[in-house]
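Q: what sequence does this backbone want?
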């Protein structure tokens, strides 16, 4: 789909030669690009996605990119394009398989990019080291306000990186690890307690930390300490909402 306020176009129009020319020519007819390959599989055929990314290299009008279940493109090339892009403020890559190498490319991009404010890399099955790299990029990034990495595979390295970025970052006010983040917490309770301590000690911009759903009747001993630390943190915290 292409969306701009009340304007919706059929998927068949999106990759017309006229529209690709408009992307390259910076026409101001639209500024949001939304591609959903599950409802329209043609997005994953041929060279459609590479052509879009190629056109976006010179585009200075598009401010929001949202790709869902699109696979026929190079994520490092997308990251390279975004490294120097000065107009895209919102990026969403939903349910797109993302390797550790892809995540490292996005991490390098986030360290250099000064325009993006919201990034969603949800349900990409990013491994622990890749998730950690994304979190550590927030130590240097000074413009991002929200990062959603739910549905990936955080582990001990990610928990350590999370504490580091909370202590250093002054702009991010929303972080989401999701249900898989809760699994990592259960396995590495001591590391998550360090994360909670970082939230309590560092009064940065963070207001929302989503780590998944926690059943009220959960009685696992290894989670009891985390729950107690969470309650202690919330009793004293005046930032988290």
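A:
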């Amino acid at each position: 789909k292409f969306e701009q306020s009340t304007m919706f176009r059929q998927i068949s129009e999106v990759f017309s030669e006229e529209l690709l020319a408009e992307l390259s020519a910076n026409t101001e007819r639209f500024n949001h690009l939304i591609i959903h390959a599950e409802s329209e599989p043609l997005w994953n055929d041929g060279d459609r996605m590479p052509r879009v990314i190629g056109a976006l290299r010179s585009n200075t009008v598009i401010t929001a990119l949202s790709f869902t279940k699109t696979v026929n493109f190079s994520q490092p090339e997308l990251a390279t394009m975004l490294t120097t892009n000065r107009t895209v403020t919102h990026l969403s890559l939903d349910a797109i398989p993302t390797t550790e190498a892809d995540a490292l490319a996005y991490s390098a991009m986030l360290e250099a990019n000064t325009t993006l404010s919201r990034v969603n890399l949800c349900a990409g099955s990013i491994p622990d080291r890749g998730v950690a790299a994304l979190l550590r990029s927030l130590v240097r990034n000074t413009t991002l306000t929200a990062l959603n990495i739910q549905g990936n595979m955080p582990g001990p390295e990610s928990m350590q990186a999370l504490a580091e970025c909370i202590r250093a970052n002054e702009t991010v006010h929303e972080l989401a690890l999701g249900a898989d983040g809760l699994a990592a917490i259960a396995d590495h309770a001591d590391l998550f307690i360090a994360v909670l301590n970082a939230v309590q000690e560092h009064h940065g911009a963070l207001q929302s930390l989503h780590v998944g759903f926690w059943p009220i009747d959960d009685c696992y001993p290894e989670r009891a300490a985390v729950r107690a630390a969470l309650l202690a943190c919330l009793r004293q915290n005046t930032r988290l909402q």
